[in-house]
Amino acid sequence: MHMDTRPDSLAAALAPKSVAIIGASDNPDKVGGRPVDYLRRFGYAGNIYPVNPTRSVVQGLPCYPDVASLPEAPDLAIVAVAGAAVATTVRACAARGVRTAIILSSGFGETGEDGLQQQAELAQVAARAGMRLVGPNSQGLANFSNGAVANFSTMFTQLAPQDGPVAIVSQSGATSAALYTLLRERGVGVRYVLATGNEADTTVSELAQVVTEDPAIKLIVLYMESLQDPEVLAAAAAQARRKGIPIVMLKAGRSASGMAAAQSHTGALVNEDGVVDAFLHRHAIWRVADPASIVNVAELYLKGMRSLGRGLVVVSNSGSSCVMCADMADELGLQLGELASSTRERIKEALASFATCSNPIDLTTALLGNSGALGGVLRALGEDPAGDLYLISLPVAGAGYDLERLAEDTAAFEAATGKTVVVTATLASALAPFRRRGLVTFASERQAMLALDQASRHFALMHAAPPAAPDGEGIVLPEGAAPFLSEADSLAVATSAGLPVAAYWVCHDVDQALAAWRQLGGAVAVKACSEALPHKSEYGLVFLNANSEDAVRSAFESCRDGMATLGVPWGGVIVARMERGRREFAIGGKTDPVFGPVIMVSDGGKYIEAMPDFCLLVPPFDAAEVRTALSRLRVAPLFAGVRGEAPMDVTALCDAVVAVAAVMQRSGGEIASIDLNPVMVRSEGEGVVIVDALIERQPHAHSVSVSGSAHATKTVEEMKS
Amino acid sequence: MHMDTRPDSLAAALAPKSVAIIGASDNPDKVGGRPVDYLRRFGYAGNIYPVNPTRSVVQGLPCYPDVASLPEAPDLAIVAVAGAAVATTVRACAARGVRTAIILSSGFGETGEDGLQQQAELAQVAARAGMRLVGPNSQGLANFSNGAVANFSTMFTQLAPQDGPVAIVSQSGATSAALYTLLRERGVGVRYVLATGNEADTTVSELAQVVTEDPAIKLIVLYMESLQDPEVLAAAAAQARRKGIPIVMLKAGRSASGMAAAQSHTGALVNEDGVVDAFLHRHAIWRVADPASIVNVAELYLKGMRSLGRGLVVVSNSGSSCVMCADMADELGLQLGELASSTRERIKEALASFATCSNPIDLTTALLGNSGALGGVLRALGEDPAGDLYLISLPVAGAGYDLERLAEDTAAFEAATGKTVVVTATLASALAPFRRRGLVTFASERQAMLALDQASRHFALMHAAPPAAPDGEGIVLPEGAAPFLSEADSLAVATSAGLPVAAYWVCHDVDQALAAWRQLGGAVAVKACSEALPHKSEYGLVFLNANSEDAVRSAFESCRDGMATLGVPWGGVIVARMERGRREFAIGGKTDPVFGPVIMVSDGGKYIEAMPDFCLLVPPFDAAEVRTALSRLRVAPLFAGVRGEAPMDVTALCDAVVAVAAVMQRSGGEIASIDLNPVMVRSEGEGVVIVDALIERQPHAHSVSVSGSAHATKTVEEMKS
């Protein structure tokens, strides 16, 4: 809904030629006074037009009585009036040809249904005039490269701004200000602080897209409580990825309580959290749980990483730091690789004889007597392949330590090798010489390790080639008005998409059923088939292991009679080969109302819901990505075969998952959900086989099925049953 | 080994009447000069005796040529000499009647086997003379209440000490200094900074015991890499629990890499990490992974908590903070309880009309216009039962906010209600008015939530009644020299302890086996029984589901012949009723070489090792504790019955676990391990039944069993197989 028009207006809102402040105040601490003050204080060079019918001068600037009398149509109008005056002002702005209006006023969507309705009307007024709206309930936009600070955050007075390579785009003004504060306290320059508020029109995704175009931006930080335009965010992420700009997102509303709080906060729709995770992963956006996880990694992001490896070398003057870092490396999956024997020899030379020369490297007290020891060790390490990431930890420092020399040698190592180097010390003063030389420092080893882990994973994710959309023609579902396809139709769609389905016949009389049994050769499953029977086993209309004429006949008749009794449309009786596998899995797909196709792979069996073990993937993806996702399942250790078993055919499972994603994508949104359960996984080389399938049509205007379930979109959790 | 003698000497080492510094230096920045400087600088009032044969005066004090010529036997001697002089000095101290000697010198256990041997000899010399040793490779002891700072940490010059209620006891000097620094930077007073180094004699546990006796101490912080005297730590923990002093422990060497690094750091033995967890939990010691998790919670610990409830109320002037806190509450299991409707009405009165009055409470912009709004909300909350813990989050603050008034009202609320209140803000300056009034503050909501979670869990753990040791007579194992008991003997021990064992006969001929089958009535298992066959199924000598004369006869003969072929001692053939259950579990016990009896309960089945799902418990414990531990298993959701199943008999499972602990304790250490697997758990009221049992004797001087496994102590992982 936001992709069509006027992105240029938002770009212009960040670099406006003129700004009007409607409801301008002479008091620079009031909402209507702050932007006037900030625009002048932070060097905005365009025209500033205060608007206030009760004043002729505001903060020394000539003031206009109304929007209509402005000398030009401003690129940006800041609406700082209250109550009913907001609507009047928005109409006036639209009429005057304002390109973008920021509504700072609150009292809209965050107060309930009425407010939501009011802000929707404002958005309509704006849309009809080709004007963009930011807010309502927005803290405003701020661009510190040109002083266009149309924002009333108190924090800009508390902590001096400095233009820099970071863009903050946030639904919440408070969180945008908190992120600004944390980054500035760390000395990081911030160019954009943009808050969208209730998002009646402009979204975080759209502004993310705009700032991605700024060549000075090297890191984008997003805060959202609700994401409704994933396609816009995906486009921004794709562009950022091409330009090597990391995007980090704090998406709140993760849990039930958080979603409830988010809904009462902005009135926006909640997202299913697991799907959010999968979507962000697909687009190489790194998700964090709190502001510190963004700020902590910012400097590492800004420095960039030349190597994507996970090899870690730790050098410390404390043995206990070595131990704690080793613990954390294992916890995070960073590899403390073994050093080459030549490296160890060179380290031994650089240090006193009794020092440990394995990784982590304990310098013991060498630095007290020999300030060159660190440099010597680093030079020895420079040629060792074990290290992609270097952590230098100096928990003990102060009198007796030549920190300038240590910092000099560390900076020289970084410059010579291009490796990623971080330094930690307990005392902030001990870090100062390192920071002066441009090294990335942390107050604790844990923070440093978490930052190295996040940055290396994120850069690797950004560098992975984005997979292509699937080939293949569109899939057309059989005609019909029922919410579900019958099992036969569902199996036929799966078969046509190349999925390995258990051999089956659709039989319409006993003779056909007996012929099917003889042809299939061995035990069969006999199942009632009707588009109105998506949950046939609940009606006792599934008969397993039939392996005699009598058994097949009796099962067929029971299915036929049962369907007649229930009065469901006749779709025949399925006679299918009984299949065995090493382990049952389930593959599902659904069309999320916000994110579109989402694919689930789950360990199967009776307790699939009680003891969940599944992963979600947003297409497009390839088999290799499925394999990586599967490797994180609890059941993963069984894939290789344990206790003398052969390995499982994970390749076939991955191929099936990719094929299900293709079915979802090729159906053009016509499939609401697909549920393949069980999928029997066999030993390597023997493939997988799908034993049951159920496809749900995207609802248009359907009736209720015989099972009584309304044709509402199912959640992924329901999907797994 | 450390419980017997001379604890008084260690108490005296923290409050010595006189201190000698051997290797005293005139340079206050040298290891031998620091303690002289510190003792005087920090107001030590006892006698200071520098010892150095090359000087007559050290830092203005008369200097003695050697230990023998000291005018009195000092309570404490600081050994700051190097190499071979250490041993000479220790002997001289022992001869002179020194009560405790701290060896600051390094080059001992941390360098390898030779060093370990040398420090063991020093410990022997000391022990013979009744002298305690601290170190070697120790940073020393510091007591800031009396200036007895026999410690060479640089950090005391970087950050001024202040006596206070915290004791730091650490194996590592660097970590003790880092903890000191972090606490002092937060403004927390620290009395003790004690570092034990290589622990040739004095351990962290012993010093923990000493500081527990100090009535001024309100929080004890420990760092260890290796714990070898759990009984001493348990005694310290019991005393601390009685006095309400929380103990927080950073035990490094959690992972494989961490253990390897720890071993190269101090040469000490590694602990099995899961057992460490269970032991610390048993003794209400809270384990953390990094120094920040200690320091972050210190002020909350020092303030104490009147309520142990988990009800959380969040009040913030940022809607996004409300959302993020709600997410974290769910993540941490803190309950955002619903407010009473009367409370909500009163809050509505205190705030502008459109504010959300549910918990978390979004103040929106009320504080800007109405400084009394926070106080009004808090007064409304004071009578609501939802809140045990209060988080007041002010991410936005600065000009326009009357922080003094907000702090005043918050402090009044805390004083009036005695509730636990914490305050967060992004700007440190915004927190100052709250800190001045004694409120606990945090720089981020996440830190605050983590602290509330940890403190409330830890205080609840400390307040739980410690369970009593089990009743019952000692259990005597049957005579024998083999490492394992036969299955029959193992089952007999289990039966005698009241454990529910499947009905079985031990048969010595075919007729007995047939009689057993008839008597048991139904399918039976037929199993070879020999003390030399702990892994009988690996030799194909277990036959399940025998339910005919032929089958039982054939199985008996196969067992008899198989045992003859293997040449193992004849223990008969077990004929046991085939038992069914709802799910297989396993219960194990082992005698850990450091910690003694440890009990494991695990979900069972074929993949018990590939997909581990178990908990460890250190006795004594009661059934309620087992139930709590079991509730954390992945399999726990099945206990209540899912998909129409009846609940499982978890009560019987818990009773069985308690009985296994009693067997281990009542055997007086004679059982190296016990393995009950499978334990079939049935529906509620139907109990559990043990199908197989294997008891391993504590090794004295045994041979190797026929299965080839040496009689080494098994790990818990091995135990589960």
Automatic annotation (TrEMBL), chains A, B:
SMART domains: CoA_binding. Signal peptide: none annotated. Its EC number is 6.2.1.34. The keyword Nucleotidyltransferase does not apply. It comes from Cupriavidus laharis. GO terms for molecular function: trans-feruloyl-CoA synthase activity. Residues 13-108 form the CoA-binding domain. It is an enzyme of class 6 (ligase). Keywords: Ligase. This is Trans-feruloyl-CoA synthase FCS1. It comes from the Bacteria.
